[in-house]
Amino acid sequence: MPRPLPPPTLNFRERFSALRNLPPFLRDIWATSKPLTLASLGLRLIRAFLPVVMLYIGKLIIDEAVRLIALDVPADLSTAWAGGELNHLLWLLVIEFGLAIFSDLLGRMVGYADALLSERFTNATSIRLMEHAATLDLEDFEDPELQDKLDRARRQTMGRMNLMGQLFGQVQDLITVISFAAGLLIYAPWLILLLAIALIPAFVGESHFNALNYSLNFQWTPERRQLEYVRQMGASVETAKEVKIFNLNRFFIERFRTLSEQFYAANRRLAGQRAFWGTLLAALGTLGYYVAYAYIAWRTVRGDFTIGDLTFLAGSFRRLRQLLESLLTGFSQVAGQALYLDDLYSFFRIEPEIASRPGAAAIPRPIAQGFVFENVGFRYPGADNFALRHLDFQLHAGEVLALVGENGAGKTTLVKLLARLYDPDEGRILLDGRDLRDYDIDELRANVGVVFQDFVRYHLTAAENIGVGQVEAMYDRERIEAAARKSMADAVIDDLPRGYDQLIGRRFKTGVDLSGGQWQKIAIARAYMRDAQVMILDEPTAALDARSEFEVFQRFKELSDNRTAVLISHRFSSVRMADRILVLERGQIEASGTHEELMAAGGRYAELFELQAAGYR
C-alpha cells in the first residue's frame, strides 16, 4: 500500500526561519571566489536594466513607424532611403539589434561565471565536509541517525549551487521590477497593487508545496540510503562472486524496484497535487493581468495613449506580472532551498565529544610505565549491556600483550579504548600515571599503530596503500619499502607488474587484485610505517594460514624494539609467544598470565587451546 504523503513538518513561520541559513551560505560563496562572485553580480546588475530599455526602444520603433505611415512615405524602398525619412527608424533598429546581441553575450558570461563559481563552491564545500567528518567521533559514524544527516549533507554539497543562481537571479529580477514599476507608476499605480494581490495565492501555494517536498525528502533519507546500498550491492566487484553464486541479482533488483517504485509513487502524488493547485492559483494572477490589459487598451482607444504606449505598457505589465510571479514563487523556493541548507549546516554544527582538552599534554617519549586500566567500563550508545566492565590491569611499557576470547568478549572494544576512539563510561585509563584524556588526541593516535581485521582496501598504488599509514611520509619510498619488508609484503609487491607503482584493486581499469592474505600483509605494512610507540594487531591475519600467521606474529615480536604491543588472534598457537595473555569473557578479565601459566591453571584458556589443537591433529 502506498505510503501517504507526509504532512509539512514545519509551520509557515518556521519554514521561513530557515532563511537564517542564507547569510552563512552567501559568506561561503564570497569566500570561495570574490572575483567570480563580483563578476556574476555585476553582470546581472547590467542585465537587469536591459528588458525595460529594449521594451522602450520597441515603443519608439512602433511610434516612428506610425509617424511614417502618416507622412505617406514612398512605397519604393530606395526612394524612401534616399530621402532620409527612414534614418531615425534605422538607427532605432540598429540600437535594438545591438542590445539583443549584448543581452545574449551578458547571459553567456553570467552562465560562464556561475559554472566556475559552482564548481569551486562544490569542491570547497565537499572538502569542508570531509574535514569536519574527520573530527567526529567513531560513535557518530556508528549512529544511523548521523548516517542520515551525513547523507543529506553530502547531497547538499552537490545540489545547492542552483540556490546561488536563484538568489542572484532574484536580485536581478527585483531591479528589473523596480525599473518597470517606475514607468507604470506614471500611468496607473493601482494596477501594480492589483497585480501583487492577485499573485499572493500562487506564492502561498508554492511555499506550501516546497515544504511538503522537503518533508518527503527528509523522511525518505533512510530509504534513499537503502537504494544506494542495494544499487552498490547489486553491481560491484566486491559482491560479484556471491551475487553470481547465490543468484542474488533477482533479489537485489526486486528490492531496488520495490523501494524505488514507492519513492516514485510518493513523488508522483506530490507532483500531481502541485501541478493542479499551482495551475488554479496561477489563474488568479492571469486574471489580474488581463484586467489591467483591458484597462490599458480602453485608454488607448480613448486616445490617452499612443500605439507605442500601448505596446510599452502592455509589454511592461506582462513582464512585470511574470517577474513578480517569479519573485514571489522564487522567494518561496529560496526559503524551501534554505531548508535543505539546514541539512548541511546542522551537520557542520555537530561537535565531537572526544577531543583534546585545552593545554593538553604531549605523549611521553619514551613511554616509561605503560597503561593502567582502573575499573574501566564501556557501553555502546543505545546498548543495554556493557561491552566491557570492571577492567583492572596494566599494560607495561615494552610488553607484548595478547588478548584472547570468544567473539563478543570485548577484545576489539578494549583496543578502541586504548586508541581513544571511545572514552570509558566508567573508570579511567592512565598512561604513565596520567589520565589518557589529558593528552593531546592527535599525538596519542600518532603514537599508536593499529591494523584492524576489517582494514580498508584502498584502490591506490601498492606504495600509497602502505604510505597511508603515515601520510606525512607518503612519498618516502625508502621508508615504504622498509615497512613492506617488515610485514613480508615485499614479496607480494615484487610479483606485481609495476611493483610499488602498481594500482591494486579491481575498481579501476589498470588495477590488479590481491588475495585476502596479500591484502593483509599490505595492511600490516601500514602499521610499520609509523614510528609508533604502541602497536596493535587486531586479528589482521585471519586470511592467512596458521604458518603464515605465526611467521607474521613472530616477526612482529622480533621487530617490536621494546615497543608496547597488543595482539589479538583466535589462533592460540600464535599468541603463546606474547609476554602475557589476557583471557576475556563477556567483557571481563577471566584470567591473566603466560601461556604456560594459563595452561597449568586449566580453565577456559586451556580448554580452548586443547580444542583448537585437536583440530590440527
Blueprint (SSEs and pairs):
Layout: H1 12-17, H2 22-32, H3 34-70, H4 77-83, H5 87-135, H6 138-141, H7 144-159, H8 161-187, H9 189-219, H10 221-234, H11 240-245, H12 249-301, H13 307-348, E1 370-378, E2 388-396, E3 400-404, H14 411-418, E4 426-431, E5 434-435, H15 441-446, E6 448-452, H16 462-467, H17 477-487, H18 490-494, H19 516-529, E7 534-538, H20 546-558, E8 564-568, H21 572-575, E9 580-585, E10 588-593, H22 595-601, H23 603-616
Helix pairs in contact: 3-5, 3-8, 3-13, 5-7, 5-8, 7-13, 8-9, 8-13, 9-12, 9-13, 10-12, 12-13, 17-19, 22-23
Textual characterization of the structure:
- The protein has 617 residues and is of the alpha/beta class.
- It is 63% helix and 9% strand.
- It contains 23 helices and ten strands.
- The strands form two sheets. A six-stranded mixed beta sheet has the order 6-7-8-3-9-10, sandwiched between helices. The protein has a four-stranded antiparallel beta sheet with strand order 2-1-4-5, covered by helices on one side.
- Helix 20 links the parallel strand 7 (534-538) and strand 8.
- Helix 5 packs antiparallel against helix 7, helix 8 runs antiparallel to helix 13 and helix 22 (595-601) crosses helix 23 (603-616).
- It is elongated.
- The chain starts with 11 loop residues before the first helix and ends with a helix.
What is the structure about, briefly put?
The protein has helices at 12-17, 22-32, 34-70, 77-83, 87-135, 138-141, 144-159, 161-187, 189-219, 221-234, 240-245, 249-301, 307-348, 411-418, 441-446, 462-467, 477-487, 490-494, 516-529, 546-558, 572-575, 595-601, 603-616, and strands at residues 370-378, 388-396, 400-404, 426-431, 434-435, 448-452, 534-538, 564-568, 580-585, 588-593.
